[in-house]
Known about the structure:
This protein is about 55% helix and about 0% strand. The protein contains 2 helices and no strands. The N and C termini lie far apart (about 35 Å). The longest helix has 19 residues, at about 20-35.
Amino acid sequence: LYAAANDDTLLDWQYPDEDRYLRAYARFRMILAYAAMGEPGSARAVYDAL
């Protein structure tokens, strides 16, 4: 059932570093979420971790 999730030959990356870009985008979304919740300290901590 989970064999496809662990099969590296099925990975579809458009370019070699796409996973880094996706992680950075996820952090950006976290910054926006913290800012929207009025938590600038948490947003800053996520930004500093980039």
